[in-house]
Design goal:
Structural class: mainly alpha
Largest sheet: 2 strands, parallel
Number of helices: 5
Strand content: under 5%
Radius of gyration: 25 Å
Number of domains: 1
Distance between the termini: 22 Å
Helix content: 55-70%
Length: about 170
Amino acid sequence: MKRVFCGLLMSLTLLPSAPAQDKKPMVVVINIDQVYLMSDMGQQLAVTMQKFTTDARQEGQPLATRKTALQEKARTDGLTAADLAQIQRDLNGLDIEIGRFNEDKKRQAQVMQDEGLGAIEAKLKPILETLAKENGWDVLLNKVPSVVIMAGPAADVTAKVIERLNKETAGN
């Protein structure tokens, strides 16, 4: 998630403000991951991803059932060495098929997540720009330990951003 939002935060790090010789820059922080997780759009994306995961498991169930049946068949008494060898070949082929299925579903899930996060980012950028202008923010930092060592509650605008994002995307 962090690489997706890096560009968004980098483009908003230094926002234009009215020139002021003695004005101290207003620096605020945002937990961008929390915005994405707690916003209505983020919650909808989480539901969509969960449904995809559930559907993928159901779609893959016949493969798992076939594998279990082959494993049970291999434990049957009286099988010849040739029968066991064939079952092992079938199991190996099925393992390859299951691996390809899983990789395909992982790629599909990643694309869905990237598209969903991209949609949130597209809605969020103008909101952050508007909030920065309305509130006089000069610098907006992501509240992560490697970037922000300490930030008081007054500097954390995460809740304000989530509220505005939800308000402006209600019904979408």
